[in-house]
């Protein structure tokens, strides 16, 4: 290939299977069953790839357009973690190409109708901690294969229609099912319908209101705010303590923590308060 016929092409694949292709060439390129459009929906800075396990120093940026990457989808988190590949291509012969990057989109920021996303290489997951952590609190996630608690039914899950939304993160309900105050704190909220369908967040505060009402405060507002009438599903919260596992969920047999570990003070000074000899 000669330098005058080199173009760059990007493929982005979301978790739901949607695929988009972009190129900095002035005409459409097609290979691997993907149509790479020259609409500047995405571009990227020069790659600075590390030989170790650090994040590759590069960013992808582009315009938020209706037929490519929309602001609504970015706010909804639908592009988070999307797979990315980048090629250098001879536009006169697309079969003559070289893969120069493969990885995923990291943190995505938006500003003035455009987005900027960190590119993370394939080695990035190797930076994550591996192995079991010995800690007094449970290391499982509520309802996962290690916890084994069934979240089906009305004991730990409730569905209701929103009556009022304040600041995008405080949701109020009327005629809410009877649960003790704080039952859903640290739990999850999932939007089941409307423009924010599929979005989820963690519950910060759960307050029972007079007359059977409920107020749910989220730690962070959803990317797309739900509106009155949208239905949501709430899952009970777990603070990972052994007493909560035993008394709230009756699931202590599957508790994945070490509640009888000595405190850090004992580890630093094991002779304190004990026999010296």
UniProtKB/TrEMBL annotation:
- Top-rank lineage group of the source organism: Bacteria
- Domain Bacteriophage phiJL001 Gp84 C-terminal spans what residues? 182-265
NCBIfam families cross-referenced by the UniProt entry: phg_TIGR02218
What is this protein identified as? DUF2163 domain-containing protein
- Supply the source organism for this entry: Paracoccus lichenicola
């Amino acid at each position: 290939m000669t330098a005058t016929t080199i173009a760059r092409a990007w493929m982005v694949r979301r978790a739901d299977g949607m695929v988009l292709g972009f190129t900095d060439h002035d005409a459409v390129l097609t290979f691997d069953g993907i149509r790479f459009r020259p609409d500047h929906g995405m571009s990227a800075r020069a790659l600075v790839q590390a030989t170790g396990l650090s994040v590759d120093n590069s960013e992808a940026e582009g315009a938020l357009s209706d037929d490519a990457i929309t602001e609504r989808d970015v706010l909804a988190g639908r592009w988070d973690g999307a797979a990315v590949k980048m090629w250098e291509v001879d536009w006169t012969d697309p079969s003559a190409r070289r893969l120069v990057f493969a990885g995923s989109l990291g943190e995505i920021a938006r500003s003035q109708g455009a987005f900027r996303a960190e590119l993370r290489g394939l080695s990035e997951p190797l930076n994550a901690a591996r192995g079991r952590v010995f800690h007094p609190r449970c290391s499982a996630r509520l309802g996962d294969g290690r916890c084994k608690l069934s979240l089906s039914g009305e004991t730990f899950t409730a569905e209701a229609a929103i009556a009022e939304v304040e600041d995008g993160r405080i949701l109020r309900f009327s005629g809410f099912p009877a649960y003790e105050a704080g039952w859903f704190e640290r739990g999850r909220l999932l939007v089941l319908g409307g423009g924010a369908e599929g979005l989820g967040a963690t519950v910060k505060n759960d307050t029972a209101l007079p007359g059977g009402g409920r107020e749910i405060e989220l730690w962070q507002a959803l990317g797309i705010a739900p509106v009155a009438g949208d239905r949501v599903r709430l899952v009970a919260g777990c603070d990972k303590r052994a007493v909560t596992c035993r008394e709230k969920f009756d699931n202590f047999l599957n508790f994945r923590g070490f509640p009888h570990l000595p405190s850090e003070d004992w580890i630093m000074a094991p002779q304190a308060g004990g026999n010296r000899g």
